[in-house]
Specification:
Layout lengths: L1 E7 L6 H5 L2 H8 L2 E7 L12 E2 L9 E2 L1 H10 L11 H11 L3 E11 L2 H8 L3 E5 L16 E4 L9 H12 L11 H4 L19 E2 L2 E2 L9 H19 L8
Parallel strand pairs: 1-2, 1-6, 5-6, 5-7
Antiparallel strand pairs: 3-4, 8-9
Helix pairs in contact: 5-6
Bound molecules: S-adenosylmethionine.
Length: 245
């Protein structure tokens, strides 16, 4: 079973996520074990300090190394095997069966469906949620992957981690009704295209009609319409997806 640890200084932000989502159902079904780790428990001194002023000046506070190394090591990560280069650490984790350690980071690589699929095949993932002005750069050596959820800056990594965890957990066997078929034709999936437009009852709403082919019952024709519609939509909205790498 996939084990996911999420380390955060605001663990209460995951309350709704753990109680009210597909992820909550997946936990109940035994598809995933989700453990929220309060970074503050590894904080230093009487006030359980997890942040401090940056060397060289600058606005805000940075997250300190001590609490992060202690918390991530408590999750079963042997930090000595990680490197400053997240790509090397990624490779090391694949050969040594170390957990994948995902740092949420606007400076990281943009997270994609491919990454969700790859992580869904892992046994253990640790998510690191930053806060304040971010991490002391040495904390990066813990990470096997640094992922951004888009070119914008949020206050903390909790929503980024929740988004990634949701996209991973829904791919686990038995989580979505309909199994693999439920995700087969989805955007960014096997076809590499956006999903074709979809319709439900009624067949006509305020003058807008469902394409006739979808009401025909002819499955071959429907499949071919869906492929053409998906390609057309992708060309219109995300032409970058049609370019060969
Ligand atoms: C205020 S941000 C720090 C931004 C940092 N000073 C910079 O300019 O790159 C605090 C934390 O929120 C998380 N975060 C913010 N935006 C994110 C994004 N687009 N993707 C992933 N994590 C993000 C990261 O964990 C980050 O360390």
């Amino acid at each position: 079973m996939l084990q996911i640890d999420i380390v955060s200084v605001q663990p209460q932000m995951f309350r709704g996520f753990l109680e009210e989502s597909i992820v909550a159902r997946a936990v109940k079904k035994g598809a995933v074990r989700l453990n929220i780790v309060d970074l503050r428990e590894f904080g230093e001194g009487r006030w359980r300090k997890v942040d401090d002023k940056p060397y060289g000046g600058g606005p805000g506070m940075l997250m300190k190394c001590g609490p992060w190394f202690a918390a991530v090591e408590k999750c079963g990560v042997r930090s000595a095997e990680c490197g400053v280069d997240a790509d090397a650490a990624h490779q090391a984790s694949r050969t040594t069966r170390q957990p994948r350690v995902v740092m949420t980071d606007p400076k990281g690589r943009k997270f994609s469906q491919k990454d969700a699929e790859e992580l869904a095949g892992e046994e253990h993932i640790v998510f690191m949620c930053g806060h304040y002005e971010g991490f002391d750069a040495r904390i990066e050596t813990l990470a096997t992957d640094r992922f951004s959820v888009g070119d914008f800056v949020m206050t903390g990594g909790e929503l980024a981690a929740a988004a990634m965890v949701d996209s991973i957990v829904r791919l686990l066997p038995g989580v979505l009704g309909g199994g693999a078929a439920a995700t087969a034709s989805e955007s960014f999936g096997r076809t590499g295209l956006l999903e074709a437009p979809q319709y439900t009852h009624p067949p006509e709403f305020r003058g807008m009609k469902v394409p006739e082919v979808l009401l025909s019952g002819d499955h071959a024709k429907i499949e071919s319409w869906k492929r053409a519609a998906a390609t057309e939509l992708t060309a219109k909205r995300r032409p970058d997806l049609l370019k060969k790498p």
